[in-house]
Write a structure and sequence with these properties.
The chain is globular, with a radius of gyration of 17 Å. Strand 6 and strand 7 form a beta hairpin. Strands 1, 2, 3, 4, 5, 6, 7, 8, 9, 10 and 11 form an eleven-stranded mixed β-sheet that branches. It has three helices and 13 strands.
């Protein structure tokens, strides 16, 4: 069930929100924005008169942002951030990587540093960009629209994903974890495909 914004403390003290295994949680924020929080995800909110800041500590969240030019909507995750410019987008944080995928509108993604000297990218619908634990920004890629929000429909889509990341992601949605007995498989195996 959706969490009413009256149940959240959206003042200057961060309010942690965390759903249980196998569940997505729909949240309505005080500003009218909506969030879908993935299983085993943790989101902190801190709204002020000047800024709407959320911090994704782990997992993934989808944001449908209510426009407010006087108060930027900024999602902090790892060594970077995503600032909504009137949009709907997902932030996925796993291991030492953050990926931002845009469903509609534009998002400004900023990493703390980049090997190419570029520390920010503006991405639009069906595009994604990621950054690592050091904030090094990767290349912008195109994402099939049917895959962009597949996790909100109960599907996980993986393309060239290291096995360790795939297993960790699946385990967030299961009370019975997948265990890989041979750690050498993690280094040798990448999996494209779609899992229901």
């Amino acid at each position: 069930p959706p969490l009413d914004s009256a149940d959240l403390d959206l003042g200057s003290v961060p309010a942690p929100i965390r759903p249980a295994y196998e569940r997505l949680r729909e949240i309505s924020l005080a500003d009218g924005s909506k969030v879908v929080l993935g299983a085993q995800s943790r989101l902190l909110t801190s709204f002020s008169q000047a800024r709407r800041q959320l911090t994704l500590d782990q997992g993934e969240a989808w944001f449908e942002v209510e426009p407010d030019s006087a108060r930027p909507f900024v999602v902090m995750a790892g060594s970077g951030s995503a600032t909504a410019l009137g949009t709907a987008f997902t932030v996925h944080r796993a291991h030492n990587r953050v990926t931002v995928t845009v469903d509609e509108g534009i998002v400004a993604v900023r990493g703390d540093r980049s090997a190419s000297g570029k520390t920010s990218s503006r991405i639009s619908a069906n595009q994604q960009v990621g950054y690592d634990a050091l904030g090094q920004l990767g290349a912008v890629t195109t994402v099939a629209s049917e895959h962009a929000g597949s996790w909100r429909r109960g599907q996980r889509v993986f393309h060239n994903t290291p096995l360790q990341e795939l297993v960790a992601d699946l385990n967030r949605y299961s009370a019975r974890p997948v265990v890989i007995a041979d750690p050498e498989l993690f280094a040798a195996f990448e999996t494209p495909g779609q899992l229901p």
